What we know:
It is a single chain. By secondary structure, the chain is mostly beta strands. The chain contains one helix and eight strands. It has one helix at 14-21; strands at 26-30, 36-37, 52-56, 60-69, 82-89, 94-100, 112-119, 125-131. The strands form two sheets. Strands 4-5-6-8-7 form a five-stranded mixed beta barrel. A three-stranded antiparallel beta sheet has the order 2-1-3. 17% of the residues are buried.
Amino acid sequence: MERPVIPYANIDTKPFWEGCLEGQVLLQRCSACGAWRHPPSPICPACLSDAHEWIPARGRGTVYTFTVVREARRGWEKLVPYVIAVVALEEGPHILSNVVNVAPEQLAIGLPVEVTFAELDGSTKLPLFQAVQR
């Protein structure tokens, strides 16, 4: 998949991206209070603990909100139109991603989606979402 920008891992996000390479969405869960969080961070926003574990998410959720990008910007021309969406995962956190394999006109808030992965450069897989029947 061609994209003009490839995400990179930092110390906080490395386990997330490693999970994507293995075909799973990993979320942080606070070891002190049990709160799920995304994006990854070193401290729990609920209780300020720095103790956490990485747990595989089910990879299912619903479209919380979205926008359709129809104007090409340099480097993104081949992808237009594309959908940027906030997906509410079943575990609770929201994740910013793209919804693929569905016409933008068929998208709706509340649409059930599941994760799929797109290989970008041989060392990075990007989590995307597609509509599912429930």
